Q: What sequence folds into this?
């Protein structure tokens, strides 16, 4: 038998090891038990058994060292006819010392088995041993350079699952072909893979390996040879697993992953796709997240834009304030109107101390102040009610500052600090306000009739100026005894004029949303409908006139014919009854030469407080009437406003200087 025939024959036997691969069925630790062995041909001719054995021993050492270092090794020792050729392979996931130990034991058995190496007989010079995780072949024939044999046998030694399908072969082929291509290119010539099939509820694992000395092409050819043998080896019914092993390459597949370490798979085919419900859930979650994110983004942008706008507005305002103040400073010199610093005001009023407080008006508190140059001033700190813009405020103040009349308190200047602090500075009136004198039974005596006439005429001139001669037609809206200030010579000065303008910027007659006025002085049409005109001031003037003549308050109650009346109703009743003298302040009575003017003034006062605004005279007529001689005939006063409004409480009601403030909705 020629060497090549021996070779072929041996190979046919040797490679035909296909193991049952139900790994779970194998007992634990079965990996190192021998799966099978193949014996080759006995030595031909006069070959020396001892020489061969000695070569084998040397070869075994080479193979163990090589396999430990490189995972697999080939070697040849000696010269024919006693040369020894060998190959050893450790499975890719079982390397280095562990494998070297196993291989060493196997080689020891193969070389030193005293009887017959695995039953092959002493003369046999070709032994192949397959273990689960390593394999080796020792031969007296050089098998290393030749091609690996194609698998030609068949084997039915596999468990076939009942439901396995034809396609299974295709699936196996796909997996092992894929990893074979990978293994051939890798330096360790080793590759593993997994392939999953949802419908079949099947997961396939595959492992292929060549010895590292083989070139990629040779490795690929070796593996392809095994793979092409699969259909014949494993019948189409399909199997749980199978392997074909030849000494220099192996192919294996299983439906079970315990046969090798799956930590580093070379491929993972047919990864399960997320199921539809998962898909929908994912889509829903993603959409919700996207919606929420875009909503938040939108909100964030909106807030940012708002802040941006607010910042711009603030900058615009502060620029406006600066420019207005600059403008003001430039005009200051020639207008006789000053712009004061807030610190100046604080210093002048002792930090707006309570000791410096002169009073609290409807528009804010008034403080006495002393400027460094010795000028006494009254400082009115406006409340924060003004909704006016600064520019508008400035225009109004400048208009008001231009109103100059000896019966008007002079506005000396103003002070602005920030957006809210607005202060008006007036000349200081040492004798304070009229109410403090006329309603005081002792001080009232000091104001005799000529002085009262002077006061009344001063007020009427001041009002006339505001209504007619000022070109602005300022309606005071809050004329009352407390707003009439007296200078050192008891000349009257109207204060708080123009406040309505400053606060609401409305002109002569208008429906204002804000009503300013004081109980007892306010005209009925203004109080009830918000209609304000010069005639409302005339009404207040009439009330004031009656107060000055009588020395009593409009808010008091007065008994007539057993019933209580308000001052204006009481005055009218007395007038109708021809008893007007009853009204006159006790301290004025006695001087007959004043009789006519007193009667005339009471008459005019009653004309001013008539119910209908149309019946009331305008200020210029009032002034004419007050100064008219005895020949002039005045109309009879009609019933005054609030005639039927009866006072409540005691006859001598306490002073009631309550400011009322009504806001009408349009
Ligand atoms: C046996 O060996 C001798 C020399 O060592 C040689 O001459 C002879 O041809 C050999 N026989 C065979 C059958 O090879
Ligand atoms: C491992 O392989 C390399 C390269 O193929 C080789 O040079 C080296 O000698 C081998 N190691 C052993 C111990 O055989
Ligand atoms: C076989 O036995 C001899 C002697 O005991 C020993 O030196 C040698 O290493 C053994 N061979 C192997 C492959 O273990
Ligand atoms: C495979 O085995 C069957 C019978 O089990 C046999 O008929 C057939 O010839 C065998 N094929 C090969 C290539 O050995
Ligand atoms: C997997 O591969 C990485 C690097 O490729 C290696 O560090 C790791 O040890 C490997 N794990 C196993 C179990 O082989």
A:
């Amino acid at each position: 038998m020629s060497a090549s025939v021996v070779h072929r024959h041996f190979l046919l036997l040797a490679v035909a090891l296909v193991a049952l691969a139900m790994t779970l069925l194998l007992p634990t630790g079965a990996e190192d038990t021998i799966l099978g062995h193949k014996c080759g041909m006995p030595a031909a001719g006069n070959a020396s058994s001892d020489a061969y054995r000695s070569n084998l021993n040397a070869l075994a050492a080479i193979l163990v060292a090589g396999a430990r270092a490189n995972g697999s090794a080939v070697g040849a020792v000696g010269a024919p006819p006693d040369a020894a050729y060998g190959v050893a392979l450790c499975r890719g996931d079982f390397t280095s010392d562990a494998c070297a130990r196993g291989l060493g034991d196997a080689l020891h058995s193969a070389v030193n088995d005293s009887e017959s190496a695995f039953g092959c007989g002493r003369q046999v010079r070709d032994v192949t041993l397959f273990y689960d995780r390593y394999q080796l072949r020792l031969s007296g024939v050089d098998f290393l350079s030749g091609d690996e044999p194609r698998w030609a046998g068949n084997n039915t030694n596999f468990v076939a699952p009942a439901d396995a399908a034809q396609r299974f072969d295709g699936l196996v082929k796909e997996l092992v072909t894929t990893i074979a291509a990978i293994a051939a290119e890798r330096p360790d010539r080793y590759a593993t893979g997994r392939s999953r099939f949802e419908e079949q509820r099947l997961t396939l694992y595959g492992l292929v390996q060549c010895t590292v000395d083989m070139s990629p092409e040779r490795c690929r050819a070796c593996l392809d040879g095994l793979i092409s043998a699969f259909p014949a080896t494993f019948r189409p019914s399909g199997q749980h697993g199978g392997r074909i092993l030849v000494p220099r390459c192996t192919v294996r597949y299983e439906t079970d992953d315990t046969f090798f370490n799956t930590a580093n798979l070379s491929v993972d085919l047919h990864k399960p796709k997320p199921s539809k419900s998962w898909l929908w859930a994912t889509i829903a979650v993603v959409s919700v997240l996207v919606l929420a994110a875009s909503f938040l983004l939108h909100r964030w942008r909106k807030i940012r834009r708002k802040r941006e706008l607010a910042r711009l507005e603030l900058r615009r305002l502060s620029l406006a304030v600066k420019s207005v103040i600059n403008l003001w400073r430039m005009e200051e010199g020639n207008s006789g109107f000053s712009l004061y610093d807030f610190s100046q005001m604080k210093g002048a009023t002792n930090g707006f101390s309570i000791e410096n407080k002169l009073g609290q008006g409807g528009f804010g508190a008034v403080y006495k102040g002393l400027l460094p140059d010795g000028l006494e001033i009254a400082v009115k700190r406006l409340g924060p009610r003004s909704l006016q813009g600064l520019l508008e405020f400035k225009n109004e103040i400048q208009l008001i500052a231009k109103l100059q009349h000896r019966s008007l308190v002079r506005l000396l200047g103003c002070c602005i600090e920030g957006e809210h602090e607005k202060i008006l500075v007036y000349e200081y009136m040492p004798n304070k306000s009229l109410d403090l004198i006329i309603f005081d039974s002792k001080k009232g005596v000091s104001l005799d009739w000529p002085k009262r006439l002077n006061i009344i005429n001063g007020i009427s001139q001041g009002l006339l100026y505001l209504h007619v001669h000022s070109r602005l037609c300022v309606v005071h809206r809050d004329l009352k005894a407390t707003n009439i200030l007296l200078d050192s010579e008891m000349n009257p000065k109207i204060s708080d004029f123009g406040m309505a303008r400053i606060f609401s910027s409305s002109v002569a007659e208008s429906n204002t949303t804000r009503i300013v006025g004081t109980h007892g002085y306010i005209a009925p049409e203004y109080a009830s409908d918000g209609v304000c005109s010069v005639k409302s001031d005339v009404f207040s003037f009439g009330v004031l006139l009656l107060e000055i003549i009588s020395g009593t308050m409009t808010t008091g109650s007065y008994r007539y014919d057993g019933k209580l009346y308000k001052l204006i109703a009481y005055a009218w009743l007395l007038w109708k009854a021809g008893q007007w003298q009853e009204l006159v302040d006790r301290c004025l009575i006695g001087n007959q030469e004043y009789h006519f003017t007193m009667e005339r003034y009471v008459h005019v006062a009653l004309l001013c407080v008539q119910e209908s605004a149309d019946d009331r005279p305008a200020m210029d007529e009032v002034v004419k009437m007050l100064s008219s001689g005895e020949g002039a005939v005045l109309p009879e006063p009609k019933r005054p406003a609030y005639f039927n409004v009866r006072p409540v409480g005691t006859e001598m009601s306490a002073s009631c200087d309550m400011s009322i403030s009504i806001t009408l909705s349009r």
